[in-house]
Every structure is written in structure tokens, then in C-alpha cells.
Specification:
The structure is a single chain. With 540 residues, this protein is of the alpha+beta class. The protein has three domains: 89 residues, PDZ domain (Pdz3 Domain), CATH 2.30.42.10; 222 residues, Alpha-Beta Complex (2-enoyl-CoA Hydratase, Chain A, domain 1), CATH 3.90.226; 105 residues, no CATH class. The protein is built from 21 helices and 22 strands. The strands form five sheets. Strands 1, 4, 5, 6, 7, 8 and 9 form a seven-stranded mixed beta sheet that branches. A six-stranded mixed beta sheet has the order 11-12-13-16-17-22. Strands 2, 14, 15, 18 and 19 form a five-stranded antiparallel beta sheet that branches. β14 and β15 form a beta hairpin. α9 packs parallel to α10, α10 packs parallel to α11 and α15 packs antiparallel against α17. The longest helix has 26 residues.
């Protein structure tokens, strides 16, 4: 079961883009055993004394467990921005994104007017097997009313998720008829490859949204499918990808590099955390033209992969400077079921670059993306200044820089025409989701009969459709902004069309429409003919 997550694709607003990125990304997952205890006994004793004194003598009753959690988090905040503590209650949810699956009933839902509406039953899940349909309304879970009571997405997730094999009773309203289903929860796959398709007769496109446990398997299947479709060159889209497991990035890099190339190396205080990854003889796309798309939301494992391909002169990197996270975390299990994610090393690209941006000033680190926007870096490549001491040279003589993210070979400025406050409000109020869901349901048969390619080429969002969206927004208390709608009519049309495509043809339909406004992809498509010279500057 998953909430409809259209909003993350709606508008690229830089001031919203990276809130939470610094806390959310981490690279590497290793199994570790605690090393021998060091001389911290006196410090631990002092902490125990204070905690005992509070518990026994403080004027009010306090939750000492919460105090300990807060103290641990405060202590980690003194180290770096990415070491983190996750209490036992939150640990499952925190790890879920990277496991590649979760336990639930297998529906994608949205909430319209306090009503939970099934957008789709996920393929292969228990809800699909029982016949739950798009448009069904979930009104009760285990006989508890969940309709018309101000229900929020977390309430739904909490009610429907649960361990595999457990049973939940779900009451569906279909038309005017109530239907009770007893659903046995199961593993529901989460996909980290959003989409793969042929942009033209020779160019494949793969978008990866994170590096989870199943990412390489998904990527390899996508690559195989595209090669069978005649792919000769590839665009790998890592925009907004916050990272994940380092080994997934290494395996993907190996698909593009010939044997014996350095991919990444790590260095820590403890030698056991030092490592070096080299490419193997395995590789299904070692020679075709390759372009990698990055932006300020590409972090961590995304930077390992793009850095390895840039440093080995294997790919052109196109877009804007990436996030700048070069610290490796490892999970450590604590006795109460909680988890410590501790930074144990730094990673370096093949030329020796550290991608980690400075983090001595915690406030400055958290404001970095906003500062880049305000400083003009999203709009002008020459606003970025690198210290010459951070200059490195690739085997083919190209200059690359460390010290804070991967700087692309070709800079693409942010297109501010893709930003719309009014459109953002329509998404936030679920108005655009409600309108496009209803339109897709009403016109489903005729649109699917014509097929997606016909829809992509011939379907136009009319003025009447725009006006209908405005009215849905008004019902959801969104004040119309007709001036913005008029000035940015094309933007609104693309979003409406993309959302209808998503309802009928899933992500493959959605992204093919939305990529009409993907300015970094559009620029990349113009650069393929320049790749041979650009990857070997000595020939110029």
C-alpha cells in the first residue's frame, strides 16, 4: 500500500526541494560487530548519575527514555550532519524505503474530501488478487470508520500496514454497495527504477529514484529491455536521487566500465573501513554513448556513480552541481532494537576527489541549497567558485573539482517558468489529483482503446478542462489565479496530461509526458554527437 506520490514531481521549487535531504540520505550498509570497548567508563558513569538524579529527585515526572533518545541525537549532531539515531518504534519505517519492499495490502490511494480512494491495486499484491478496483472507497478498517473524520495519510498507512501473513478487514464502498474484504497482508514491492523507455529509435532513458536493495536488479532488467529495443545510447537520470546503498551504485558503475577501472574508495579512522572498488569483466553497456543527469537533489550514492563515470571519462554529466555528500554511514544495532547510523569513513572518486561539502557550520550546511539558489548558482554556472587546490585531472585530461558535489560537464540552468504557486496549491489540496483521477475514470475506455502513443502525440488539454480544474480547486478552497493560469497555460496542460497518463499507463505514461518539461534531459539530447571529443579533451 502506498500513498499517491505525485506531488514530488509536480513543480521543481528549489526552496522546497532539499528540505530534509541532509537528514535523509545515507550511503552504505555493512554488518559490523562492536570493537573492543575504549576508555569511556567515566563518561558513561557521569551520564548514569545525572539520569538517576533526574529520575529520583526532579520536581516533575519525566520520561527518561525520551531524555536518553534526545541526548543521543544531540550528541550525534555534534559529529556530522548524517550520523543519526533511530528509535526502535521508527526503525522499520526508516528502513522500509531501502529494503525494496514493505508489508501491506497493496493499494495506492489518495484522499479526496475526507474519503480514501483507491487509485490502483498494486500488481501482484493481495488487493489485486481479491478484485479491489480503482475508484473503490475505503470507509472502514477492522470495523473502524475512516471516512469523513478528517483522516490523514499517516492514519491510513498505520491502519493498513502490518506484518506479512496478518489479516485485516477492509470495508469498500463501490458505488452505493458496501463490500467487506478480509485481506492477508503480504510483501509489496517498491521500485527504485521509476521508468525506462526509448526516447527515440536509438536513445534509451532510465530514471532511478534511489539506491535500494533491489535497484541493481531493476536497473539491469531495464537495460536489457532497452537493448532489445535497439538502444545504442543511454540517458541515466539521477535528478533528485538522494542515494542509498553504496554497493548498488558500485554494481551499476560496473555495467558501464571496462575491467580494472577504479569506481570508488573509502577512508576511515579504522583500517577495516578502508576499501576500494574496481570494475570487473562484467558489463552490459561498456561502450555506448552515455549521459548522466544530476541536480542539487542528487546525493550520496548518486554522486558515487556519476563521479566514477566522470572520472573514468565514461560519461558526460549534465545538469547542476549535485548535493555534496561524501560521508559513509554504517548501521549498528542497539540492545533495545533501536539503530545507530554512524559515519565511519569518507568516500573518494577515482581521481581522489572528496565530494563532501563543508559541514563545520550546522546552520550553514542546512541552508546550503537555499544559499545556492539565492546566490544564483541555479541559473549561472560562473557563479560557482572552486578552489584550485581541489582541482583534479581525469585520465583523458579533463579538469574536475572536489569540495562539494559533482560539477556537471554541461551546466543547465533552472527553468523558473516551471514554477507555479497556483499549481502547487492545486497539488497540495489534491485538486489536480481529484480532477485527473475523475477524468481518467470517465474516459478510460476511449483513451486506452486509442493507445498511449496516440495519447502522447494527439491528446490536448482543452480550455474547458482547465476551467474544470479551477472549479475543483475552488471546491477545495483554492483561490483561482487566472493570470498565472493564462501565463503558464502550457505548464498546467503538461501536468494535467501527465497525471491522466499516470492513471491509465502508470509511470511509463507519466514520465514520457512530464519529460517534455525536463530541461536537463532536453539539453542532454543535443549533446550526444559531441561526446567523443568531450570525453577526450586531448583530441580537441
Amino acid at each position: 500500500m502506498t500513498e499517491n506520490s505525485n506531488s514530488k514531481y509536480q513543480i521543481r521549487l528549489p526552496l522546497v526541494l532539499c528540505l530534509g535531504l541532509a537528514a535523509g540520505v545515507f550511503v552504505g550498509a555493512r554488518l559490523n560487530t562492536p570493537k573492543g570497548s575504549s576508555d569511556v567508563g567515566s563518561e558513561v558513569q557521569k551520564f548514569r548519575e545525572v539520569l538517576t538524579q533526574i529520575q529520583n529527585d526532579y520536581v516533575d515526572t519525566v520520561n527518561t527514555s525520551e531524555l536518553v533518545d534526545d541526548a543521543i541525537q544531540h550528541m550525534l549532531n555534534k559529529l556530522d550532519p548524517h550520523s543519526a539515531y533511530i528509535n526502535a518504534a521508527d526503525r522499520i519505517a526508516a528502513n522500509e524505503d531501502l529494503r525494496g519492499n514493505f508489508d501491506g495490502i497493496g493499494v495506492e490511494f489518495n484522499i479526496f474530501h475526507d474519503t480514501i480512494v483507491v487509485v490502483s491495486a498494486l500488481s501482484g499484491g493481495p488487493s489485486e488478487a481479491l478484485g479491489i478496483q480503482s475508484g473503490d472507497k475505503i470507509i472502514k478498517v477492522d470495523d473502524k470508520l475512516l471516512a469523513g473524520i478528517g483522516v490523514q495519510s499517516p492514519d491510513v498507512m498505520k491502519a493498513l500496514k502490518g506484518p506479512k501473513g496478518t489479516e485485516v478487514k477492509v470495508t469498500i464502498l463501490r458505488g452505493s454497495k458496501e463490500i467487506d474484504y478480509k485481506i492477508v497482508r503480504d510483501k509489496i514491492p517498491q521500485y527504485s527504477v521509476d521508468v525506462s523507455y526509448m526516447v527515440d529509435a536509438q536513445t534509451g532513458y532510465i530514471k532511478v529514484n534511489r539506491f535500494a536493495a533491489t535497484t541493481f536488479e531493476e536497473f539491469h532488467e531495464a537495460l536489457k529491455k532497452l537493448k532489445e529495443s535497439g538502444m545504442k545510447r543511454l540517458v541515466l537520470d539521477l535528478q533528485g536521487n538522494p542515494g542509498g546503498y553504496m554497493n548498488m551504485a558500485i554494481d551499476m558503475a560496473d555495467e558501464f566500465l571496462s575491467e580494472g577501472k577504479k569506481i570508488v574508495f573509502t577512508n576511515g579512522k579504522e583500517k577495516k573501513y578502508n576499501s576500494e572498488a574496481m570494475s570487473t569483466a562484467r558489463g552490459d553497456f561498456e561502450t555506448g554513448p552515455l549521459i548522466v543527469l544530476v541536480n542539487e537533489g542528487s546525493a550520496s550514492a548518486s554522486e558515487i556513480l556519476s563521479g566514477a563515470l566522470q572520472d573514468n571519462d565514461r560519461a558526460l554529466i549534465v545538469g547542476r552541481r549535485s548535493f555534496g555528500k561524501g560521508l559513509v554511514q554504517s548501521p549498528f544495532d542497539l540492545s533495545d532494537g533501536s539503530e545507530l547510523r554512524l559515519t565511519i569513513s569518507r568516500y573518494y572518486t577515482p581521481t581522489g576527489r572528496s565530494i563532501q561539502k563543508p559541514y563545520e557550520d550546522e546552520d550553514e550546511y542546512s541552508r546550503d541549497i537555499i544559499s545556492r539558489y539565492n546566490h544564483g548558482e541555479f541559473f549561472h554556472a560562473d557563479s560557482i567558485r572552486f578552489n584550485d587546490s581541489l582541482k583534479y585531472v581525469t585520465p583523458n585530461g579533463r579538469t574536475v573539482y572536489g569540495g562539494g558535489g559533482i560539477m556537471p560537464d554541461y551546466f543547465v540552468p533552472l527553468d523558473t517558468t516551471l514554477n507555479s504557486h497556483y499549481l502547487n496549491e492545486l497539488y497540495t489540496s489534491t485538486s489536480i489529483q481529484e480532477y485527473t483521477f475523475g477524468y481518467a475514470e470517465t474516459h478510460k475506455d476511449e483513451l486506452q482503446k486509442k493507445g498511449f502513443q496516440s495519447f502522447l502525440k494527439n491528446f490536448n488539454v482543452s480550455d474547458d478542462m482547465l476551467e474544470s480544474l479551477v472549479k475543483v480547486g475552488e471546491r477545495n478552497k483554492v483561490k483561482p489565479d487566472r493570470k498565472e493560469l493564462r501565463l503558464k497555460k502550457k505548464l498546467f496542460q503538461v501536468h494535467i496530461k501527465a497525471q491522466i497518463a499516470r492513471k491509465l499507463w502508470n509511470n511509463e505514461g507519466f514520465f514520457q509526458v512530464m519529460n517534455e518539461t525536463n530541461e536537463i534531459l532536453l539539453q542532454a539530447m543535443k549533446l550526444f554527437d559531441r561526446i567523443p571529443n568531450e570525453l577526450d579533451r586531448r583530441k580537441m
